[in-house]
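stage 2 :: seqdesign
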């Protein structure tokens, strides 16, 4: 790695002041699990890293409101989220997703905010958060703004974040009676990067789906909702024909990309199958994922 300056501010304001909005070689670093790999491989050569490790300002907390809505500080490690009783109570699908998110060594270090800001389309957490209707608080030098997670990503490793803005909080509505599931297909080990990820959150009335949020990831350049699939499922009582139509709608809508984990044709076939599996798994749960 090439030499670089490491700044270790102790407040959020100081950290943001150290970020240069005009210099792409100045970056914040949280857990660093992805950024360090990019630096070791020479993909990224920073001039300055602004470590957030000493910043407190409530960035490592998990709180649950009376209605179950979660507020999770952006510097909270993924393993802490995984073990949180509050998260398990309010959004059990998140806890279940964590069990196959990389490995425990990574989850002990990687943070919620870092996982979102990195914008890797293979990450497991973004599609689940989008399905749940989660939002983030973004803090800049003069103001804050709240943004739905689904509006954060603009492309492959790209977000709407300005270079001197930080994600400071994640807000997740209570899963409540919604039935949710996340499935991924890996071509390696169970915790490997997926060739496809599908997240589902269903509002149901008995066997009838009142509304749905369906999200695809990994096979696309960014995690994104499949609104034609949501429309196909809304008001439907699930059977094989309904799921077949939903699968075809997903393939028609999703902009599938090929990579080392599979061809576009292979991933389209996966999507047809996994849309049906994810919906059925969600329906088989009572507000939790397996």
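stage 2 :: out
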């Amino acid at each position: 790695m090439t030499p670089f300056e490491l700044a270790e501010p102790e407040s959020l304001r100081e950290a943001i002041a150290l970020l240069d909005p005009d210099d792409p070689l100045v970056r914040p670093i949280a857990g660093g699990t992805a950024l360090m790999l990019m630096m070791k491989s020479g993909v990224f050569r920073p001039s300055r890293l602004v470590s957030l490790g000493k910043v407190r300002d409530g960035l490592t907390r998990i709180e649950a409101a009376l209605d179950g809505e979660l507020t999770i500080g952006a510097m909270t490690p993924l393993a802490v989220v995984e073990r949180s009783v509050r998260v398990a109570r309010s959004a059990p699908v998140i806890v279940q997703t964590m069990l196959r998110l990389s490995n425990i060594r990574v989850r002990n270090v990687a943070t919620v905010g870092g996982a979102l800001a990195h914008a890797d389309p293979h990450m497991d957490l973004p599609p689940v958060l989008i399905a749940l209707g989660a939002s983030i608080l973004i803090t800049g030098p003069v103001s804050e703004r709240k943004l739905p997670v689904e509006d954060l990503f603009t492309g492959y490793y790209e977000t709407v974040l300005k270079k001197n803005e930080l994600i400071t909080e994640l807000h997740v509505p209570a899963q409540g009676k919604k039935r949710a599931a996340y499935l991924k297909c890996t071509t390696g080990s169970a915790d490997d990067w997926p060739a496809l990820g599908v997240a589902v959150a269903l509002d149901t009335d008995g066997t009838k789906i009142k509304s749905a949020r369906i999200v695809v990831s990994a096979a696309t350049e960014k995690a994104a909702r499949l609104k034609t699939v949501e429309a196909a499922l809304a008001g439907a009582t699930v059977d094989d024909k309904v799921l077949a139509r939903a699968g075809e709608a997903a393939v028609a809508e999703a902009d599938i990309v090929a990579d080392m984990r599979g061809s576009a044709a292979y991933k389209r076939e996966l999507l047809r199958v996994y849309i049906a599996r994810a919906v059925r798994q969600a329906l088989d749960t009572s507000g939790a994922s397996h």
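stage 3 :: structure notes
- The domain at 179-283 is CATH 3.30.390.50 (Enolase-like; domain 1).
- The chain has a mean pLDDT of 94.
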